[in-house]
Design goal:
By secondary structure, the chain is of the alpha+beta class. It contains 15 helices and 24 strands. Strand 11 and strand 12 form a beta hairpin. The protein is elongated and about 95 Å long. It starts with a helix and ends with a strand. About 13% of the residues have low confidence.
Length: 493
């Protein structure tokens, strides 16, 4: 090792003076160096010798030049790159500060507003790079530098340059491109076509760790972590840290979707949804207190002719308050909000608004004129869920991340943040079935016809299973409005 360092110092002696090692990773070792030409400190990264031997200088340097054109306030720029005595190196500014990895080792979890700010700054850097067709491929706390409170993303495009230059020969080095805990499922399964949504997934892992204290997937071996990345769904952040606003947890979960198509399309969209309810990020009022946004929440739509008034009754909210803040008395109150509908319209009973409240009491879903909307009780506007036209009977999943509904007589679901609509099964469902999403990951419902008993289907879709049978006796003609209790072992109907 000393011989290698002496060789490196000698090879770069006319341009850089290597002062000390700053750190070492899977692909490179980074040194603090002095740039003679510009009289400044720089961070000089040298690829591992065995990796450099596989890549070849010319192709790697051609690939890495692409990243030199990235100019953004939250991207650490590339100063220089080259080859000397068999060493491949690239040079970046030396940043006074620390990595996010170092900060998390010291503090474990970050304040919510700081975690959101860092994530939005990195999102902006990703959006800029993706517009220039550069994918990072290794977003992790160790590649996010914190300088004077600002986030800077380092090593942009290095993994891509290594991949493009080395191709299949990379496996000869035993090198894994990407870090397992922050690797997207498509990276973990070796997909050749990786786009910007892979970086979005990795950034969501970083956000998850900043708020929850650990990445969404951990394990004792690389193989164990990768297996979880591919198959397991992480727990919502709110289950691990109940002060995190629900919308932030939901945004993180959407960005952590297994399929790229189910994630945010860009870093800008990720940041937009993350900060959309910015006021909720820092609220500190206890649930049920007079200052609570839940006690004062109101909604008004565009000022158009026909208005409907809906009441969220205090009994339900009082029960939720009792669960969440045991030390506060469960005061009953009414939250009123108004939905206004475009144009004159006479509503039939079937078109009357249907309400559903999320299990944590922070969101309400409602259907108006055959369309579904979701709104936060601390916000002021409902958001239409595209693709839900002609829907009925909205109901939340047990974790509040999904909304089930009946459309065209079929049981379907959609993320509360929007996205594609998924049909869970082909069998028709009764309009009055009152579907219920259980904590055990199944949905109970009534088939069309009314005398078919209670059925259940996995929340991911599949073949329905009958769980009650109607006897046909006078006192047992219909089964309606089912709920699964006791982790799915009991059914109430």
């Amino acid at each position: 090792m000393t011989d290698l360092l002496d060789r490196l110092k000698a090879a770069l002696a006319d341009r850089y003076r290597i002062e000390r090692e700053l750190g070492s990773g899977g692909m490179a070792t980074v040194y603090l160096a002095h740039d003679f030409k510009h009289d400044r400190k720089v961070a000089l990264k040298v690829l591992r010798p065995e990796l450099a031997a596989v890549l070849g200088a010319e192709r790697f340097l051609n690939e890495i030049r692409v990243t030199a054109n990235l100019q953004h306030p939250h991207i650490l720029p590339l100063f220089d790159s080259g080859e000397a005595d068999g060493f491949l190196y690239y040079v970046m500014p030396y940043v006074e500060g620390e990595t996010l990895q170092g900060k998390l080792r010291r503090e474990k979890q970050l304040p919510i507003d700081e975690a959101v700010r860092i994530t939005t700054e990195v999102s902006a850097a990703l959006s800029h790079a993706h517009r220039h067709h550069v994918i990072h491929r290794d977003i992790k706390p160790g590649n996010i530098l914190l300088s004077e409170g600002q986030a800077l993303v380092a090593d942009f495009g290095i993994a891509l340059a290594v991949t493009a230059a080395g191709g299949d020969r990379i496996t000869e080095t035993g090198l894994s491109l990407g870090t397992p805990e922050y690797m997207s499922p498509e990276q973990a399964t070796g997909d050749r076509e990786i786009d910007g949504r892979s970086d979005i997934y990795s950034l969501a892992c970083v956000l998850y760790e900043m708020l929850a204290g650990d990445p969404p997937h951990t394990g004792s071996t690389v193989q164990a972590v990768i297996a979880k990345v591919v198959t397991d769904h992480p727990r919502p952040i709110t289950e691990l840290r109940d002060t995190v606003p629900t919308h932030i947890s939901a945004v993180a979960s959407k960005a952590l979707a297994k399929l790229p198509a189910d994630r945010f399309a860009s870093g800008a969209e990720f940041a937009e949804y993350l900060t959309k309810n910015e006021g909720a990020v820092s609220y500190g009022a206890a649930l049920g207190s007079p200052e609570s946004p839940y006690a004062m929440a109101r909604l008004w739509y565009r000022p158009i002719p026909v208005a409907l008034a809906l009441l969220v009754l205090g009994a339900t909210m009082g029960w939720l308050v009792g669960r969440t803040a045991a030390t506060s008395p469960a005061s009953a109150y009414v939250t009123r909000f108004t939905i206004q509908v475009e144009g004159p319209h006479e509503m039939s009973d079937a078109e009357s608004p249907r309400l559903a409240m999320s299990p944590d009491g922070r969101r309400v879903a409602y259907g108006v004129l055959g369309k579904l909307y979701v709104r936060s009780l601390e916000g002021f506007e409902g958001r239409e869920l595209s693709g839900t036209q002609g829907s009925e009977n909205p109901f939340f999943s047990a974790d509040g991340m999904w909304l089930g509904f009946v459309q065209d007589g079929r049981l379907k679901k959609i993320s509360v943040e929007g996205g594609p609509v998924t049909t869970l099964m082909d069998e028709p469902v009764s309009f009055n079935s009152g579907p219920h999403w259980s904590e055990d990951g199944t949905i109970v419902f009534v088939k069309a016809g009314g005398k078919n008993g209670i059925w259940r289907v996995p929340a991911g879709g599949g073949v329905p299973e009958q769980i009650t049978v109607v006897s046909g006796r006078e006192e047992d003609e219909y089964h309606f409005w089912p709920q699964l209790l006791d982790a799915g072992r009991l059914v109430l109907f």
